[in-house]
Every structure is written in structure tokens, then in C-alpha cells.
Task: structure prediction
Amino acid sequence: MHHNLKCLLLKSVAAQLQTKLSSNTIGNLGPHSVTEKEGNRLFKLENLHEIFASRSHSSLKRFEQSNTGSRFETIVAKADLPECGTLSVQVSTSQISVTGLHDGFVLQRITDENGNIIRASDNSNNNTSLMSFGSGTQYVIYYGNDTVSCCRTVFTKPLPVRFPQYPAIIETYHSSLVRWSKPDEYKTSYSYRVQTNVSSSATMLYNTIVTSESVEIMDLTQGETYTFLVYTIAADNITESDPMSYTYCHPPYWIFPSVNNYGAVDSFEVSWTKPEGKVDNYSVIISGAVNQTIYTNATQVTITGLLPGREYTVYGRTNSGTCYRAYGVTGVTYPTDAGRITITTIGTNNMTLSWMEPVDMAGVDKSYNISYGNSSGTWTVTSNTTSISLQNLTSGTNYTITVVTVGVRGYQSSAVTTSVYTSRYCYD
Result:
């Protein structure tokens, strides 16, 4: 039944029809046709508006018989009877509030959709609130006076949905699956309206009607924050519950940082390509011997103040609203040079040398490549300490000696060089 239909009780017509109640058909009232009796209660009469010409009502008419008597009811549109149209009804999940009754009108009864009386007449007038109704349920409010009975069909508001403990959002690159649980007092006639708003501007992006407890929202922008409002809709497809709101930041795209140190011992450069979607800014997060976080709107940053010969974890992070995505790589600084070389002993075919530990590399894993050579060739040995003895040398020969620090990933420092002669034999 439509919300704007009203019921008009015309007792004078009921008297004309009283004699027709015993048969299965009402027959004819002059030129006006009628339908067969439906069960034991309801007769539907058509084209009887001439009978009510004095009131100019031309809507659906029905005749209703009960155990105690009969009455003829006419369902009229709001415009047909102004007295019926002043009623204002407000509903909640369990309450019906009535205001605006016409002078002399009272609430007569409230029935469910099957005609069962839920609330009997209590002669209530304006500003009446009635409690303890079922949620999302159809009711018919009858109101009027001794000669006129109007009616209004209303639905109480359904209860809102519930968001589950498990993730309410399952995301892909350009869409999100929004999920929820059925409301309490759920009815199979329910549907749902899912409104998708852009949170920053409160602009409605989509308005989707579904009958299941999930919906996939397509074409979302990476890095944008959305608010999903889920309403339960009653069987009239008009009355809605209060919304359940879920605010969700659709994560931005990753960036994939590239690290270049160009031989530097205390810095390196991190760069990346600007991603699609919305990005507020970027974070470059350094962890290791030195920890730093740098925020930037550019797509390149130089990290300084690092320690030499170390490997660092480098996260490039896209930030947008309350969400972010980060991708990690590693970056390395070059080792510092070894200190000055000292020749501690020199023999005719051997020598011992040492050097100072590289600056800022105490306790760091490293090794040294020591190369020594003369006009006949060059040889290289490795040491894990800051000294070494060179054997099988040629007496009286000038050797060029270099020491290179080898750090993480085999990165090598600049060479430290010295030159020295081995001793001659006495007969040389």
C-alpha cells in the first residue's frame, strides 16, 4: 500500500450494502459493478465513485465484513480528503510518533501488514509517541473521527548493519570489496544502499543498491580516502536505517627506490619514479648504523651523515592521508682509506708493514688488499688485520706498496701508497 493512501469510512454506504452480505457475490448496485467476495472478509468493489459523488472520491473502494458488523471503506489519495493529509509521522526502529492530526481526529488503531491489530484505539491526539514496534516492519495507522477514517502506511526503520571483526575491506589496485554483517532483526525483504564518498570533500562518488552483504566498489584512486556509508533498506525501498560508516584509505602505489652512492663514504642518493594516483609526500627511511627519516615532495633525495663501509636498509614510502606503502632496498657506503703505511722491519727478502685503521670503521667487518710490485711484476695478498709480512722479495729492489680497504659488498676505498727498498746483501 502506498504511503499517501488514506481510508474513508462512510457509514451511510455500509447500510446500503448490509443486505448483500449473505451471498458470494454482492451483485449490482444500480449501474455499478462489483467483484466476488474474497474469503469471508473482503469484497472489492469497482467503479462506485458515483455513489460518493457528493464527496468526489474516485479511488479504490473496498467492503469489509467482521464478526460484529460491516463497514464500507474507501481508500482515497491524500489530495482527495484534505483532513487526512495533515498527519505527520516520524519513525525510528521501534517508535512511531504522530503529529498534525486534523482537529477532532484521534488515533484509532495500528495494524500490521496482515490487518492484525497491534495497537487498539486509545483516543490519542497530537504529539503522540508509540513504542515497542518491530524494526523494518510495515504498519498501518488508522486515524479520524466518528464518520471519517483515514489510514497511513509506514515502515519503521531497520536496524543498521554491523561491520565484522574480520577485515571489512579487501583491496585491489583500483577497487575495494566492502563487507558487512546482516543487521539484527534481519528480514529477507531487505536490501542495502552503499554510498561511497570522497572523504576530503564529502563528495558522493557512487550510490549502489545491493541485496547481498558485500559490494565491490570499482575505479577507486590509489591514495584517496573514502567513506563508505551502508544503509539497510526496508521492503518499501524508501525507509532506511541509520548508516554504518567505515572510513578507508585506499593505499597509494609503491615506489621502488634506486640507490647510488657514486663512491661516497658518508652519503648516497635515493631516487624513484612518481607513481600514479594521489600522493601527499614521500618518506625515505634509513635504518642501520645511522637512522634517518626524510620527507620530501621531490622524487630524489641525498642522504648524508652516514658512516663508511656500512650497509643500510632504505625504505621508499608513499604517504597519502592516513595510509602509506613502503618498499625496501639496501644501500651501501664506501669504506674509508687505510691510514698511513709504516714499514716496521726491512730485510733482504722480506719486510713487515702496518697501517692505521680507516676512520670511522672500528669494529666493522672489513679486509685489506695489499699489492706490492717492482719492475718484474705485481703481487696481491689479503689481510684481516692492519699489518702484514711480505716474503720472497728480491734484495736491493724498490717495491711500490698499496693498501686498499675492502668493505661490504666488496666496495673498495682509494689506495694508500708507499715505496721502499729491500736491504742488499753484503756482497751486493
